[in-house]
Amino acid sequence: MKKWFNQRGIINLVEMTWWQESPIPDHPDYFVVATPAMVPPLKTQQLTKHWSARHPFHTNMTLWNSYLVIHRPSSSTSHPLLFHAGDTGYVESLYSHISAIYGTGCELALFPIGSYCPRWHLRQQHCDPQDVVKMHMELGAKRTVGVHYATWILSDEHYLAPPMELREAAGKAKLGREVIPGQHGRTIVIPMEAESTSDEEKTETGDIEQEVQLIEARGGNCVVWR
Question: What pTM was computed for the model?
């Protein structure tokens, strides 16, 4: 891909392979990690997880990535900040493997929630909302926002079904505070350091604690997630 961009005059880029890290310019403690998204099939598997292609004769010639932004103040300490899963299906053990390397507690994960029906055809390309809840737990993220839906009609589910199904799946897993769908046109502000809540405070607030605390700002076009 670097050659493709360079031929078009774009030279300010970094090409990475899976698990490679690149420091963020002017922020030496912060790194972008090229983590996998599509995983090549084992000999016993019949299908791949999504694919990469720029033209009909280019299928799976380049890697299909997710990305993780980490803060590493020292060689022995790192903290995951942002994970973008990319366009992918559920890959068993991948997200627990990422968290085993870089730690749990990722401040925010972005997972795709749309274009997943029928499952017999699309389960290898796109995760569904139920998969996203598993991915959130395996990654060990603090918060997850569902993205990648209601843009193109590419599958059989209603275009507004993904956010509703994500809320339902998150609620069943008692993760209604941690996992929410993104809303088109609305900005979500996420404080880097979450406010701690004692067990006594959780008991006193009762059911309110199970609700997502989205504090509206800017006339409702922006919310602060606490």
Answer: 0.79
